[in-house]
Write a structure and sequence with these properties.
Keywords: Membrane, Transmembrane, Transmembrane helix. This protein has about 220 residues and is mainly α. Helix content is about 80%, strand content about 0%.
């Protein structure tokens, strides 16, 4: 039953899926702009009214860029995950040789919905109960919640925050989709994702930490 549902999800029309993802991403960007960024500009205590008006006007001129950049970032993320899988398949030879780049990209595309759940949930919480409530709830989904952020070095915040419920759900979800798409066992798919995606994620963390250290120093 579970495999049938996953197969149905994989076979679901890609154009409809992409349109839904684009719609969700635009909604997320709009809510973040209207309920987070704009109020932050209005609440700047050390800034006079004219400066606030200037900031708001400039923000209004370029706010459309976020609606373009967000889908591009999502597409880049999907491509990077696909590359991890494809290179891992060549190096590890754990998946059948007939598995193509198209299969990995398709799985990465459909699995990315799990990562969009985090900003989507945050968006819904903001609309339902406000930004403070949303921030409080979202903090509890990350390992960072158990640390005193003020006592941490700047380079430690991002790596720790990446260990969250949604990242774990993505790991499980993409493993299940790969299992169905490649006709492998779920355990084999989990091992493959661990060896490929998790390795790429660690490399990403190292690069981010290096950049943060360079900026801080």
């Amino acid at each position: 039953m579970k495999s049938n549902l996953l197969q149905y999800y994989l076979n679901w029309n890609v154009k409809c899926y992409v349109l839904i993802i684009l719609g969700i991403s635009c909604l997320i960007v709009y809510v973040q702009q209207e309920y987070i960024i704009v109020p932050q500009i209005h609440n700047m205590l050390a800034v006079d009214i004219k400066t606030k008006e200037w900031l708001l006007s400039k923000f209004g001129e370029y706010r459309f860029a976020s609606f373009v950049l967000t889908p591009l970032v999502i597409l880049l993320r999907i491509y990077l995950v696909s590359i991890c899988f494809y290179i891992g398949n060549i190096l590890l030879e754990r998946v059948h040789k007939t598995t193509t780049w198209k299969t990995y990209f398709h799985v990465s595309l459909k699995a990315d919905f799990a990562l969009i759940l985090a900003p989507l949930l945050n968006c819904c919480l903001i609309l339902y109960a406000g930004t403070d409530f949303a921030a409080n709830i979202m903090q509890k989904t990350s390992l960072l919640y158990f640390f005193d952020v003020d006592s941490l070095d700047a380079w430690m915040v991002i790596p720790i925050s990446l260990f969250n419920i949604f990242e774990f759900l993505y790991f499980l979800f993409v493993s299940m989709l790969l299992s169905v798409a490649t006709n492998r066992t779920y355990r084999d798919s989990m091992n493959f994702v661990t060896s490929t995606y998790c390795t790429g994620l660690i490399l990403y963390i190292i690069i981010v930490v290096f950049i943060v250290l360079c900026i801080v120093e």
